[in-house]
Design a protein that fits this description.
It is built from 13 helices and 16 strands. The chain folds into 3 domains: 2-140; 160-208 and 368-434, no CATH class; 246-353, PH-domain like, CATH 2.30.29. Helix content is 38%, strand content 19%. The longest helix has 33 residues, at 402-434. The strands form 4 sheets. Strands 1-2-3-4 form a 4-stranded antiparallel beta sheet, with helices on one face. A 4-stranded mixed beta sheet has the order 7-6-5-8. By secondary structure, the chain is α+β, with helices and mostly antiparallel strands. A hairpin with a 4-residue loop joins strand 14 (290-295) and strand 15. Helix 5 (188-206) runs antiparallel to helix 12 (375-398), helix 5 packs parallel to helix 13 and helix 12 (375-398) packs antiparallel against helix 13.
Length: 446
């Protein structure tokens, strides 16, 4: 695809292949969406295809007042329309902003937001005129925009097989559980169905972690250089931070990997590219406060706290090598003696996520997502499900239903074992190894 090519939102396990593979660009005659699997879908531009675009600037919508959009994460959308103004496809802007998971909604909007994503340059290169509106009811917008399947998205962090299995298992478990409890003489197979559905639910979640590791290996990119943190003695570095966080320099991108393994791919070419480093220090202080990655318009695209990344023994060498390998110029910025850093919202967020996290926060950030249901709901199912299966299975055994009883008990036991181990192992690994403070002077290999 020709430049500019849009990168998706920063993603980590189990959606690493989204950050690494999903792209939106053009091939000279049409827009091309590359999915997380590497499959390409093409949408023609010109006669019979896309001829215009309308950007709904969610940040400027007057009906939403000063509190921002009503839905968190709503960055607005770009409608791609044909010659008659009918919707062809729609682009959710936040899905194609690499730093969107770390930014507050009102931090960027309008043309600055389109520049950050590269959307304005992409549409210009395709010859598609772009108009901006701020009213969701504007006549320029096609009201069919809510139709499913018309959005050009990089994909959901959770794989389809996981979501479909949960959508099947949860109703089956709920209906069979209600039938077993409310019916005095329910057939034994209902208890087996309840236990089997609950077992599928827990096995489905337990399979996500090994599946995520497989995805990471399968989608591993070609890297020119990888730089791990070289923290100072007082940075509070942990093994998780030292082995997970990194800055990678690749052929077309510089990639920031935070403490939870989320990868933010920032382009090195194009109007939406990172164009340089800014090293920030206070007047009279020898050690810098941090490093900001800046775009062409001066916008902060990422930040690295100096103490967590370059204050160690190998830090000076890694900082020098990072600048040389990436080819990005370095500019010095000096603040007043009492000035605060960071002041940019993204840099503020990065000084937390691109640094060692407290143990509890580290465990939460690295937790494999459960899906659209609240954690409390899925946790309750993992506790109640095995108890019900074991209780009703034991009752069937006492009543002489040996086959159904044994099946229910075995499935209930497997459900309890799977649910327990899939949560206990990461917790113990965090407590005993990953999130304990590393020995002073410990540095990860570059």
């Amino acid at each position: 695809m020709a430049a500019p090519v849009l990168r998706p939102y920063a993603a980590g396990p189990p959606g690493l292949d989204i950050a690494r593979r999903a792209r939106l660009g053009h091939d000279g005659t049409g827009l091309v969406l590359t999915t997380r699997s590497g499959r390409r879908r093409r949408y023609p531009v010109g006669d019979g295809g896309i001829t215009g675009a309308v950007f709904l600037d969610a940040q400027a919508a007057p009906a939403w007042g000063h509190g921002g959009p009503p839905v968190a994460g709503s960055w607005g959308r770009v409608q791609l329309q044909d010659a008659d103004g009918r919707l062809v496809r729609e682009i959710p802007v936040g899905d194609w902003l690499p730093e969107s998971p770390a930014l507050f909604d009102r931090h960027a909007g309008g043309t600055a937001l389109l520049t950050r994503t590269g959307l304005d340059a992409l549409l210009t290169s395709c010859g598609v005129p772009l108009r901006t509106v701020t009213d969701p009811e504007d006549a320029l917008l096609d009201r069919t925009s809510r139709r499913r399947g018309r959005q050009l998205r990089p994909g959901h962090a959770l794989p389809d097989w996981y979501l479909y299995t949960r959508r099947l298992a949860l109703p089956l478990w709920t209906l069979s559980m209600v039938a077993v409890i409310l019916t005095d003489s329910s057939p034994p197979w209902l208890a087996v169905l309840m236990a089997a559905a609950g077992c599928v639910w827990t096995l489905n979640h337990a399979a996500l972690r090994p599946w995520s590791r497989w995805v990471e290996r399968r989608s591993r990119p070609e890297v020119l250089a990888r730089y791990a943190p070289a923290p100072g003695a007082d940075a509070g570095a942990t093994p998780r931070f030292l082995t997970t966080a990194a800055v990678r320099v690749q052929k077309d991108d510089i990639v920031l990997v935070d403490s939870a393994g989320r990868e933010r791919w920032l382009p090195l070419a194009g109007p939406h590219a990172v164009t340089g480093f800014v090293r920030v220090r206070r007047t009279g202080q020898r050690e810098p406060l941090g490093v900001e990655l800046r775009g062409r318009d001066g916008a902060v695209r990422g930040a690295l706290p100096w103490g967590a990344w370059f204050a160690g023994a190998a830090g000076a060498d890694r900082w020098r090598d990072l600048g040389r390998t990436s080819g990005l110029p370095v500019r010095e910025s000096e603040l007043g003696r009492n000035a605060l850093w960071p002041t940019d919202p993204l840099a503020t967020a990065d000084t937390v996520t691109m640094a060692p996290l407290p143990p509890g926060a580290a465990r939460r950030s690295a937790r494999i997502p459960e899906g659209p249901l609240p954690v409390a709901t899925t946790g309750a199912l993992c506790v109640i499900g095995p108890l019900l299966a074991l209780a009703y299975g034991s009752g069937l055994l006492r009543d002489g239903g040996s086959a159904a009883g044994w099946a229910t008990v075995v499935l209930g036991g497997l459900m309890a074992l799977t649910a327990g181990l899939s949560r206990l192992i990461p917790y113990l690994d965090s407590r005993l190894r990953l999130d304990r403070r590393a020995a002073e002077g410990t540095e990860a290999p570059a």
